[in-house]
Amino acid sequence: MTIVVHGSSASTYGRTCQITLREKGAKYEVRENAVHTPEQDAVHPWGKVPAVTFGDVHLFETIAITHYADLTLDGLPLRPTDPEGQARVLQWMSAIADNLTRSAFPIIIERLIVPGNGGEPTEAAIEAQKAPFSRDIDVFEDALGTNAFLVGSELSLADLLLLPIIDYMTLTPEGQSKFKATPRLNAWRTKLMARPAVAAVLAPELEPTA
Question: Is this structure's pTM higher than 0.90?
Fold first, then answer.
């Protein structure tokens, strides 16, 4: 089966999909498309990134893509087998997509993408997100508790959705300041960054995209 990831390798969601495929031991190719280009519009009805083709199956939306990969590909299981554990994976993935992206992405865009395109960050836009971002990070810091990962003792898709966002935020002053007070999240990130699948995807030279 040929697996194709359509979209930017710098996208946080695209990185989650690539890490998932690598953790499953799957080989894939990447077709680098920017958002809202004719090429991406052809594979995603809203022109967003990523979309992934698994042979004859074409999917968009990262939660759906990664769950399909975990269900159909060999390799490391990335969801618990019990109903509660599976529900908690979906709970955290939905919370990340619905909440953390709203607070973190504006900071990532202003601090990393805008300067990369020759512009100046809008400090007011950043300031407006600092408190929501701090609050969201506190939720994840508390969620780890004594657990190694978001959903218990084993790596899950929820961790892989969260990590690329946290990784980019470590490059911003706002993230660096907040992460001084998150020892659990810092230990979690260090553990994940040591995984070969993660190290292969989170290449520092890539410019971030939402």
Answer: yes
